[in-house]
Design brief:
By secondary structure, the protein is α/β, with parallel strands linked by helices. 36% of the residues lie in helices and 15% in strands.
Length: 348
């Protein structure tokens, strides 16, 4: 009896069900195939004898590592021309946290790797015995494509700033236009007419946003080259601009960090926000929203949904569930008014 005490056969005998039912009930990928009341019965028997699944044996049987490798590109500030005070600290951190939660929810392990500019990862990172698939975050990993294809290791790319026009790779990214369009239309409806754009100088992660806001400002007839400023490097630039420019009633910022600086500087100068000027950020950074903050209006990138979608699409490929080999999924951004914008007509 002791020999079989910690075996699936013993659990099946103890719970009075078939071995296949126990196997399915204890497999996170298949337990939905077992009726809830039967799963609960099996769980009670498992708890009673303190049984635990032999993960190594199960993974060997399934020919899976039950692990997903996440590779994050470390973008260095070394060559940037703006102050780190204008960088959003939550961007990469949020992506990692959301991916970790999504992977754990599927009962997989996450293996996290970082890669810096001009660095190459050792190929054992992509060993099929160590991982079932790879998610590249914020870059394409093009130098590994041939190796991944040769070894038939599923992979895709996830980023808020990815080039959404590429269809030669699997990707989960953002359609940034809807959130910006919602914000512009809400501010126009509220009576705003003099729009400005504040961001650091051009960089990879901002090019798409700058292009979209430029085109939308022109489409809605609010573009003014004097107020379109993708050249702000630090707080002192913001201070100098707001000190002399009073011909603006709506300011869009490339992230919530800059938006919060702008709100504080405007109020320091006696300008009412949102009474005189509305301010909109980007990214829905939790540090700038909610109680005891300026609750900055923002364009939300659905980070958790993006991570869940990326993990789900990758596992479809891993499990051969008739998935597209190169899924191309874009999730819409959303405008969140916050406390720094008027969304109703002034005086109304």
């Amino acid at each position: 009896m002791e020999k079989n005490r910690h075996s699936l056969k013993y659990i099946a005998k103890l719970s009075g069900v078939s071995l296949s039912s126990v196997s399915r009930a204890l497999d996170p990928a298949r337990n939905h195939m077992v009726r809830p009341e039967l799963r609960e019965k099996i769980r009670r028997c498992v708890d009673k004898v303190n049984f635990s699944v032999n993960l190594s044996a199960r993974r060997l049987r399934l020919n899976k590592a039950e692990a997903i490798t996440v590779i994050v590109y470390l973008d260095s500030f070394k060559h940037k021309t703006f102050s780190v005070e204008f960088a959003s600290p939550s961007a990469g951190r949020d992506d990692i946290q959301c991916l970790s939660a999504a992977i754990k929810a599927r009962r997989y392990d996450m293996k996290l790797e970082f890669i810096a500019p001009d660095q190459r990862l050792p190929y054992h990172v992509f060993d099929r015995n160590r991982t079932d698939g790879v998610i590249f975050v914020s870059y394409y990993g093009t130098e590994y494509v041939d190796y991944l294809e040769k070894n038939k290791l599923p992979n895709l790319y996830m980023s808020r700033y990815i080039d959404t026009k590429r269809h030669d790779v699997g990707l989960v990214g953002l359609n940034r236009e809807p959130g910006y369009r919602q914000a512009i239309e809400a501010l126009l409806k509220a009576g705003h007419r003099r729009f400005a754009w504040f961001s650091p100088p051009f960089q990879t992660s901002l090019r798409v946003n700058i292009h979209i806001i430029n085109e939308l400002f022109r489409e809605y007839g609010v573009f003014d080259e004097r107020l379109f400023l993708p050249t702000l490097c630090n707080y002192y630039d913001v201070h100098g601009i707001l000190k002399v420019r009073r011909d603006v009633d709506a300011i869009f910022c490339s992230n919530d960090v800059i938006a919060d600086w702008v709100v504080r500087e405007l109020r320091r100068n006696g300008v009412r926000v949102p009474g005189d000027v509305s301010v909109v950020g980007y990214d829905n950074d939790p540090a700038y929203h909610g109680e005891w903050t300026n609750n900055v209006a923002t364009i939300e990138a659905p980070k958790a949904l993006m991570a869940e979608t990326a993990v789900g699409e990758l596992l479809k490929i891993v499990n051969h569930e008739n998935a597209e080999p190169h899924p191309h999924i874009l999730l819409d951004t959303i405008f969140i008014p916050g406390d720094t914008t008027f969304t109703q007509a002034k005086g109304g």
